[in-house]
Design goal:
heterotrimer; A alpha/beta (456); B mainly alpha (310); C mainly alpha (280); A: alpha/beta; D-Maltodextrin-Binding Protein, domain 2; 20 helices; disordered N terminus; C: 280 residues; mainly alpha; MetI-like fold
């Protein structure tokens, strides 16, 4: 999920365009052809229809474009009156282009959203129609993470497409073995590894936080371990719990420990994430974290399955979420002003037919977000561990906090803690303070998140 | 086409008096100015008007001073302002460096044009390019630190952009690097226009470099120094967005250490979906700039009088 | 500038050149790193950034070129040309209006317009973006050109009004008495005389429009409409692992500026400092 936050960094265009046209068109029902989402059999147009689709994903799941083009051809053959035009967006352009389209109501029928907050916020802003109005609940029940991330007030707002295991840790077993070490599964082992390797001037784990968003990854990788459910995070957002509570705030102290034990590369604060990951590929660091769908390629570049192992972040807690790779699904949604919602939904459903699911795996090597996909065919050990995590429905916590909290509190404080300028406790306190401030500056936040939490 | 022969046969007009019965009335000026005025009104007046209106609303409802209250009590906004103020401290540095170099250049005959050209060059580069290249140079294990280590000056090596305590000053350094060329050329032009006689007299008196320039050059440069100071102050307050955006990936990091007011506004509007707050912050920034504008205007008044008044 | 050839003066002269050389070096070194970096491999750059490239290679240039540079160039030229032509025409007309006539409030109006030079663009960004979004003009060139013209007008009007007022009254009176219309006077007398200031103003404006980032970033979101500056900003992110390619891209982007500077250094310096020298 490259540059997730940076792209969301332009999310605010939503409000801009919302205010530009005084009332964003409500919950998006120009022609609700299904009643309350109970059935998907909405009448489809018989005349010529053109569907416009904006999406992202080839950047993190190479091969996606080929797959999509083939899927479109197949669908158009089956539905000769429908033409589909797809545009692959840049990371920075994905959200701003959507917001500009929302303001000007330019024709758009299918839009890509990252999961969780990124699919929810556009819906709260009135820019998407709930996908459950057009696809049946039975069908949506097969879509991985739909309920966990994309449900709101009884509806599913956006349809999961493919799974993003968030995020695997890659380990160079050879490098560890050369220094007399084994793969650290627990936090204490991890810190001991750091002590040994840092004495030799080797970074144990490579990372870069200059561009901020690796901090969000760390938040989930370390912060989820002391939680049992994403509800706890939502509670802290609305004010029923605090980010300084032990379950929510102790991970900051773990982060501080990793800095004190010199686990990271010394230039972590002046490197962007992808630059720092090179250290791992160059065999100069023992571990790194990488984007989910891309991990198999990355592992190959770094030496292949004999040398490289995929694991979850070393466990510092014995909670149910520790030691597991979280799962998040990237989604496809329908803009509220689309004039072909039924057709758009039908195409999305088509992408979940068995042939398409299989083709997705064949062409991208990553996991489609559908439990009907046959996992037994996966034999590659790295993919197996990745996909196991992906099907486990372990929540990816970064998707459950407001984007502004992420950038104002998480990114910033991760940078400071890793620099050694701030203690973990102070970081947790700052995150709580930022959340309190955010509840006053974002005047709809509490309502939206309370509604979201009530459906979890 | 208008040539001397024609003017000779005229009776001389009173100098500076442009009024002639043949000239169309002053409202004609409006015709000429109107197109430009229309664009200016749209881009500035309309935009500012909308901005102010929006700063008093929330989702189309009037909310009075709410937005301003929220922005002014936001610690991040105050931090942003503080950082702009800190950048202002770079202005005296700019002036000092530019003065020194301009004076030295004015006394250099051989290579004068070459050095002037080279020293001015950074000023014409796009901030985007400067930001990326210098950002790369200043990474912890980048060329600058490598060179310092290589020259035995390792103790000066630092995490220029990654250390929250110095990142802002590093940014200031980059801005100085780029902006100093402007000052050099400005001051140089002024110095070269100063009469030689005073210098010759001072040389005969045995005045050295420092005394000569302190007593002769500087006093005659107050005008242009003031102009440069105000121009650069305006840069430090309203034109540093590009530097921060490029060199910190739009984060204002590490931590908050390089957040400036323009970045705060940009992020509030385009990142945090809080346009009304962004509008309020923008109004505040505009008012601060207005203060500088008034000073700028007064400085220019003299020259404007020369331009348009008689 | 009296020249005295004493040991003191010669020592002074030596330290002068040292100072100038050091400063000149610091001005040029980033460019050196950029160009040599473009010719190296990633490893070579990271390990020996200051050395000359061992095996100079143009592959990075090819990669960066195919990343979209040609389209960025074209877009930048479209936007720059449109904006600069627009501002030159409008400012010349308006400057003539200010220079030729006396009217009440002329000085104040001109002063206000000139002071608009200092308004931070980010302040105008939000309302103008909303306006553009409502019209569906986001990712069109016309809105960017329009806003660029607006932002460049204050300085341009100021500069030209300055020059036009300095045209000797006698030249103008002659034509007036002959019954020439204001338009004719402008066309046949004023413009031909205005070569130098128009040239320097054109240089200043082209430079400004060429280097502008923020507005282009916000208004030209469609990748097909990206200008050079917007292109590099995102390009740097995409190729963060391939520094030579980034450096190559930057070199290509800077090249036109360097060439123009070498050819017309005079214009750059004159134009950009024109405002300040008048401040005496």
């Amino acid at each position: 999920m490259r540059k997730t936050i940076k792209a969301a960094a332009l999310l605010g265009v939503a409000a801009l365009t919302l205010a530009a046209c005084s009332s964003g068109s409500g919950g998006g029902t120009t022609s609700p052809s299904a009643s309350g989402g109970s059935t998907a059999a909405s009448p489809m147009a018989t005349g010529p229809v053109t569907l416009t689709m904006h999406w992202w994903g080839d950047q993190e799941a190479p091969g996606a474009k080929k797959w999509l083009d083939a899927a479109i051809t197949a669908y158009q053959t089956a539905h000769p009156n429908i033409t589909i035009k797809e545009t692959l967006e840049t990371t920075d352009g994905l959200i701003p282009n959507f917001e500009a389209a929302a303001a000007a109501k330019t024709p758009l029928d299918i839009q890509y959203f990252w999961g969780g907050i990124y699919a929810q916020q556009p819906h709260w802003n009135g820019n998407t129609a709930a996908i459950s109005d057009f696809i049946s609940a039975d069908e949506l029940a097969h879509y991985t993470n739909a309920q966990m991330e994309d449900s709101y007030q009884g509806k599913i707002v956006s349809a999961p497409w493919y799974v993003n295991p968030s995020f695997p840790v890659l380990v160079n077993k050879d490098l560890l073995a050369k220094n007399g070490l084994t793969v650290p599964m627990t936090w204490t082992d991890f810190l001991k590894t750091c002590d040994t390797l840092s004495a030799k001037g080797i970074p144990t784990i490579a990372g870069g936080v200059k561009d901020g968003w690796f901090g969000g990854w760390l938040y989930s990788l370390l912060g989820a371990q002391s939680l049992t459910s994403q509800k706890q995070v939502l509670d802290a957002v609305v004010g029923n719990a605090k980010f300084t509570d032990p379950a929510l705030g102790d991970w900051w102290t773990r982060l501080e420990e990793s800095q004190k034990h010199k686990c990271w590369n010394s230039d972590i604060n002046s490197q962007e994430l992808y630059q720092a990951q090179q250290l791992f590929v160059d065999q100069k660091a023992a571990m790194t974290v990488t984007a989910g769908p891309d991990a198999p390629n990355f592992a190959t570049k770094a030496g292949g399955p004999d040398k490289i192992e995929v694991m979850a972040m070393p466990a510092w807690s014995d909670g149910p979420l520790a030691g597991k790779i979280a799962s998040s699904s990237q989604t496809l949604g329908i803009p509220s002003w689309s004039e072909h919602k039924a057709e758009a939904a039908d195409f999305i459903k088509f992408l979940h037919t068995p042939e398409q699911l299989q083709a997705w795996y064949d062409m991208t090597g990553s996991l489609p977000a559908d439990d009907r996909f046959d996992l037994t065919q996966v034999t590659d050990p790295i993919k197996k561990s990745l996909f196991a995590g992906g099907s486990d429905n372990v929540p990816y916590m970064e998707n459950f906090i407001p984007a502004q909290l992420d950038s104002d509190a998480v990114f910033k404080n991760v940078q400071l803690v890793l620099k050694g300028s701030e203690t973990g406790a102070a970081a947790a306190a700052d995150m709580q303070a930022q959340m309190e401030r955010l509840r006053t500056t974002d005047r709809d936040l509490v309502t939206n998140f309370t509604n979201w939490a009530s459906g979890q | 086409m208008t040539d001397a022969t024609m003017t000779i046969t005229r009776e001389p007009m009173p100098p500076g008096d442009r009024r002639s019965s043949r000239r169309p009335g002053p409202w004609h000026a409006a015709l000429w100015i109107a197109p430009a005025a229309a664009v200016i009104v749209f881009v500035f007046a309309y935009a500012l008007y909308q901005l102010v209106i929006q700063s008093f609303k929330y989702k189309s409802e009037w909310t009075g001073w709410d937005n301003f209250r929220i922005v002014v009590t936001d610690p991040l906004f105050r931090t942003a302002l503080k950082h702009n103020m800190e950048l202002l401290l770079c202005v005296p540095v700019l002036i000092a460096v530019a003065l020194l170099l301009a004076i030295v250049l004015s006394e250099t005959i051989r290579g004068h044009t070459f050095f002037r050209g080279v020293l001015f060059f950074p000023y014409i580069l796009p901030v985007t390019v400067v930001g990326v290249v210098l950002g790369q140079l200043l990474t912890l294990n980048g060329p600058v630190n490598t060179a310092l280590n290589g020259m035995g000056l390792g103790k000066f090596a630092a995490d220029w952009l990654g250390d929250p305590n110095i990142a802002l000053w590093t940014m200031g350094g980059v801005i100085v690097w780029k902006e100093v060329g402007f000052g050099i050329v400005l001051f140089l032009a002024r110095i070269l226009s100063l009469p030689n006689e005073t210098y010759e007299a001072a040389a005969l008196d045995g005045a050295g470099f420092w005394r000569k320039h302190w007593s002769i050059t500087l006093p005659q440069m107050t005008g242009v120094i003031a102009f440069y100071a105000v121009t650069e102050a305006i840069v430090m307050v309203s034109w540093v967005f590009n530097y921060v955006y490029i060199m910190t990936n739009g984060q204002g990091g590490p931590g908050d250490s390089t957040v400036v007011t323009e970045l705060y506004i940009y992020r509030s509007a385009f990142q945090n979906q809080q346009i009304e707050l962004a509008a309020a912050a923008a109004v505040i920034l505009f008012l601060i700039t207005l203060f500088l504008v008034v000073i700028f205007f007064r400085l220019q008044r003299k020259s404007l009088l020369a331009v348009v008044g008689e | 500038m009296a020249k005295i050839s004493s040991p003191m003066a010669r020592a002074g002269s030596f330290s002068r050149y040292v100072l100038l050389a050091v400063c000149a070096l610091s001005a040029l070194l980033p460019g050196y790193i950029m160009v040599t970096g473009a010719l190296k491999t990633q490893d070579e750059f990271l390990n020996s950034p200051w050395a000359l490239p061992a095996h100079p290679s143009l592959t990075s240039f090819a990669t960066s070129w195919s990343a979209g540079l040609p389209s960025w160039f074209v877009n930048t030229i479209i936007v720059t040309a449109g904006a600069v032509v627009g501002v030159m025409v409008l400012s010349a007309l308006a400057a003539w209006g200010f220079a030729y006539w006396q009217f009440k409030g002329r000085e104040t109006l001109l002063g206000v317009i000139v002071s608009l030079m200092v308004v931070p663009p980010v302040v105008l960004l939000i309302p103008l973006f909303q306006f553009g979004a409502q019209l569906g003009w986001i990712s069109t060139f016309r809105i960017v050109i329009l806003i660029y013209i607006g932002l460049m007008l204050p300085f341009s009007i100021y500069l030209l009004a300055n020059f036009f007022s300095a045209i000797p009254a006698s030249l103008l009176e002659a034509a007036q008495i002959d019954g020439a219309s204001t338009g004719a006077i402008f066309r046949r007398i004023v413009l031909p005389l205005s070569g130098p200031p128009i040239a320097t103003l054109a240089v200043v404006n082209i430079l400004w429009a060429w280097n502008e980032l923020l507005l282009a970033l916000v208004f030209l979101q469609d990748p097909e409409k990206h200008t050079l500056m917007v292109g590099i900003a995102s390009f740097r992110g995409r190729y963060s692992l391939d520094i030579p390619t980034v450096m190559a891209g930057l070199t290509l982007v800077t090249l036109p500026l360097v060439v123009a500077y070498l050819v017309g250094q005079r214009f750059f310096i004159q134009g950009l400092t024109a405002g300040g020298i008048k401040g005496e």
